[in-house]
Design brief:
Blueprint lengths: L4 E2 L14 E10 L8 H9 L2 E8 L8 E10 H13 L3 E4 L7
Antiparallel strand pairs: 1-5, 2-4, 2-5, 3-4
Helix pairs in contact: 1-2
Length: 102
C-alpha cells in the first residue's frame, strides 16, 4: 500500500516527455472560501484536461472544506500546468494510490 504524498511542484522539464499522454490521480482540498469558484471546471477549460471525479466529500451549504478525488488525463505538460495552477491557489494537493484511506 502506497501512502498519499503532498504535492511538491517540481517536474522533469524534458521536452521529449512533455507531449506524452498520461493520467494522474490526485486529491485536493478546496477550502470553503474557494467553493464558489469553478476550480475543477477551469482544469478542463484552461488546461484542456479530461477530469474524472472518482469521489467527493462535501458538506451541506458549503460550511466546510470539500475534498475531491480526481483522475486527471492529458499530456504531461497539461497536467503539470494544472497542478501548478492548483498550487498557486494554495490548495492542499495529495497524490498517490492509497485508495483504502479515503
Amino acid at each position: 500500500m502506497t501512502a498519499l504524498k503532498p504535492f511538491q511542484p517540481k517536474f522533469d522539464q524534458s521536452p521529449t516527455t512533455s507531449d506524452r499522454h498520461t493520467q494522474m490521480r490526485v486529491r485536493i482540498r478546496i477550502p470553503k472560501q474557494h467553493q464558489q469558484e469553478p476550480i475543477i471546471s477551469n482544469l478542463i477549460l484552461r488546461q484542456g484536461l479530461t477530469v474524472n471525479i472518482a469521489a467527493a466529500l462535501l458538506s451541506a451549504n458549503g460550511r466546510e472544506d470539500g475534498w475531491f478525488d480526481l483522475q486527471l488525463q492529458g499530456t504531461e505538460t497539461q497536467i503539470r500546468s494544472a497542478l501548478i495552477d492548483l498550487n498557486d491557489l494554495d490548495l492542499e494537493i495529495w497524490y498517490g494510490a492509497d485508495e483504502e484511506n479515503w
